[in-house]
Each structure stands twice: as structure tokens, then as C-alpha cells.
TrEMBL record:
GO biological process: regulation of DNA-templated transcription
Residues that span the membrane, as ranges: none
Domain of life: Bacteria
Entry GO CC: cytosol; protein-DNA complex
Portion annotated as DNA-binding: 125-221
UniProt keyword annotations, A-Z: DNA-binding, Phosphoprotein, Two-component regulatory system
PANTHER family per the UniProt record, alphabetical: PHOSPHATE REGULON TRANSCRIPTIONAL REGULATORY PROTEIN PHOB (PTHR48111:SF40), REGULATOR OF RPOS (PTHR48111)
Protein name listed in UniProt: Two-component system response regulator
Phosphoprotein listed as a keyword: yes
GO molecular function annotations of the record: phosphorelay response regulator activity; transcription cis-regulatory region binding
The OmpR/PhoB-type domain, residue ranges: 125-221
Positions of the Response regulatory domain: 2-113
Modification 4-aspartylphosphate occurs at: D49
Length: 228
């Protein structure tokens, strides 16, 4: 997913950019409103700071919204309710106050991207399909293998849901523990290995969860063997 980050504070921008890239996002960073308005893209979502050096971020928000329907998330130190209301009225899809964590921003991005889909498209999409055998219904938190529901413990489901968001991407143990268990997780990650083993057993033949020594795990969708 391509992100246009509009932020004049370099330490904040670099930190957020690194965090997003770790989670598989492509990030283009500009530091002024003028650069944001002249950026040709393409991009899927805009993260927009309000305190820009050349123009008010609210004006940039209004101008970007006038050009199209690309989701806009305002990220700002302005926590005043008036700024929030004005930003949303000018076309922003969400508003995140500084300081914030990368995971919060990612959650907001995913939420606005889901809302941005046309209603008919959302209804038609239904459960997510992975290969010919596995489906995940994220609304109902249900997993089916060859049409039969698979019983998963809550953390097993959370782990599978996280890893299948970006099949093929290498996720570190820290990323996984933070996303599935707790943002403030400390200590050994042996429980992760136990849950990975359970998913391998329950979803054998549909997915392959590869362990990358010293780093983390990568989920791949198993190739269709052509057997009907």
C-alpha cells in the first residue's frame, strides 16, 4: 500500500516512515503543503500534518479532497476539538493526535481503506480467499478449510489473521507479539512457536509458515496441486 506522508518534523517523519516500511507500506515523504499538492502520486492514502511551514494543513486537506476520494488521515499535535471537527468537515477521513504509535496509525489506515470501498464491493467481497482451500471471514472471525470450519483458539485466529494480511512478507517475532498479543509484550516468545505449530497442523496443505531463524515467520499460500 502506497502512503503519502506530509510532515515537516523530520524526526517524526523518519520514525513513522521506518515503522510503516517495516509493516510493508511504501512511503513517499514530503515536508510542505506545496510539495504535497504538486506530488503526482500514485498513492492510496495520505497522512497529513496540520502544522506545515508554508500553509495550513487544513487548506491542504481541502485541496486534496477537492481532487478526489483518496483517504486522508490527519496527524497533528493540535488536539483541540475544533481542529478535529474542521478537519473532518473539510474531508479528512480520520484524525490522529500526537503523540501516537505506529500500530495506531496502521490500524487507522486499514480502517479508512475498508470504509473507502464502495458498499457493493464490500458486500460482494465476503470472506477473504487464500488459494483454493482456505477462507477467512474477518467479520465473523471464522476460518474454513475446504469448506469446513476450523476450530481455532483466539490467539491462533489472531496470528493467522495477521500473517495473512500480507502473504509472503517476513514478520519479526517482535512485530507478531506486538500485534497479536500485547503492544507492551516483554519476555520470551515461546508461546508464538506453540501457536505456529498449531496452525501448521490445523491448516496443513493450505498454508506454509516458514521460520526464519533469528528473525520471525513468513506465511505462504500453498500451491494448488490440481486435485479436485
Amino acid at each position: 500500500m502506497r502512503v503519502l506522508l506530509v510532515e515537516d518534523d523530520e524526526p517524526v517523519a523518519q520514525s513513522l516512515r521506518r515503522g510503516l516500511v517495516r509493516y510493508g507500506f511504501e512511503v513517499e515523504w514530503v515536508s510542505t503543503g506545496g510539495a504535497a499538492l504538486s506530488h503526482e502520486g500514485p498513492y492510496d492514502v495520505v497522512l497529513l500534518d496540520l502544522g506545515l511551514p508554508d500553509t495550513d494543513g487544513l487548506d491542504v486537506c481541502k485541496a486534496l479532497r477537492g481532487r478526489g476520494d483518496v483517504p486522508i488521515i490527519v496527524i497533528s499535535a493540535r488536539s483541540d476539538e475544533t481542529d478535529r471537527v474542521v478537519g473532518l468537515e473539510l474531508g479528512a477521513d480520520d484524525y490522529v493526535s500526537k503523540p501516537f504509535g505506529v500500530r495506531e496509525v496502521i490500524a487507522r489506515i486499514r480502517a479508512v481503506m475498508r470504509r473507502a470501498q464502495p458498499r457493493g464491493e464490500v458486500a460482494a467481497a465476503g470472506p477473504d480467499t487464500y488459494g483454493s482451500r482456505l477462507t477467512i471471514d474477518r467479520k465473523a472471525a471464522r476460518v474454513r478449510l475446504d469448506g469446513e470450519e476450523v476450530s481455532l483458539a483466539p490467539k491462533e485466529y489472531g496470528l493467522l489473521s495477521f500473517l495473512t494480511e500480507e502473504p509472503g512478507a517476513l514478520m519479526s517475532r517482535e512485530q507478531i507479539m506486538e500485534a497479536v498479543w500485547d503492544a507492551n509484550w516483554f519476555g520470551p516468545t515461546k508461546t508464538l512457536d506453540v501457536h505456529v505449530a498449531a496452525l501448521r497442523r490445523k491448516l496443513a496443505g493450505a498454508v506454509v509458515i516458514e521460520a526464519v531463524r533469528g528473525v520471525g515467520f513468513r506465511l505462504e499460500i500453498a500451491e494448488d496441486d490440481g486435485v479436485s
